[in-house]
Amino acid sequence: MALLTERISLERHTGAEHQGLREDGTRHVLPDLAYKRLFVVNVAFFGNPEGYESWVLIDAGVPGTLVNLKEAASRRFGGRAPSAIVLTHAHPDHVGCLAGLSELWQVPIYAHPLEHAFLRGEATYPSPDPSAGGGLLSRASLARDWRPLEDNGLLQALPEDGSVPFMPGWRWLHTPGHSAGHISLWRESDRTLYSGDAILTTSQRSAYAVTTGDLELSGPPRALTENWSQAVQSVAKLAALQPELILSSHGRAVRGEAMRQGLARLVATFRGD
Ligand SMILES: [Zn+2]
Ligand SMILES: [Zn+2]
């Protein structure tokens, strides 16, 4: 198969781990989990490309990256549409291609109900706090190119029982603070955490960060975070899970004991106002 013959280069990575980097820039972290950085944000692909039955896209990239995103998905899953799109939250850098993908794929989109009004364009997030320093991106510049979802019935609430549709073994966890309806995804069996923007694996100037060697962990970007004390609680909630691997929306996948120690230090020193 094409996927098997693709050259896979290995890259030195945090915690002496290695990650397969495919030629199209998709990073393979587990047999059923890969991610691709689009400009400044990651999107993730859940599903095993070898013998898969279905796959799920996690988040939908920065506006203007639709072609890159579609190409990466198509390389991995042979052009098949995913079974669903799951969103960590609705900031423009996470849902930039959502309207286009929705029209293309016509699949359910799952997000916390508190994010739905933003996805439909019925509400806008508070403006970033300029006193909190620069965030990841100028949201205004992203929002200009962003299109809300049409009312086509595809947007749905995540199931109340905590399950994640088409992602067996995963749970969604409400991790508010960065945004009211922010969620993270957790798989207990191998302790894999998709933290979205609740914990970042790159240090941000505007957020508290732990940096040791090439390991960087931080809370969400300060300027773009709605409720700092909730964000602090969400970091503690995720750290308490004792993850083995964290994939965040900004930064690289990190894993192992050094990461857990960094997480403990982050929790110990990360405070609300
Ligand atoms: Zn965000
Ligand atoms: Zn983000």
Largest sheet: 9 strands, mixed
Runs with pLDDT <50, length 5+?
1-18
Task: Tell me the strand percentage band.
Answer: 25-35%
| Proportion of helical residues | 10-25%
CATH class: Alpha Beta
Distance between the termini: 54 Å
For CATH, the homologous superfamily is named as Ribonuclease Z/Hydroxyacylglutathione hydrolase-like
* Overall strand count: 16
Q: What structural class is derived from the secondary structure elements?
A: alpha+beta
Question: Please, could you describe this protein's structure?
Answer:
By secondary structure, this protein is α+β, with helices and mostly antiparallel strands. It has a single domain (2-269), classed as 4-Layer Sandwich (Metallo-beta-lactamase, Chain A). Helices cover 22% and strands 26% of the residues. The strands form three sheets. It has a nine-stranded mixed sheet, covered by helices on one side. Strand 4 (33-38) and strand 5 (41-46) form a beta hairpin. The relative contact order is 0.15. Bound molecules: zinc ion (ZN) (2 copies). The site of one zinc ion (ZN) has 5 residues, from loops.
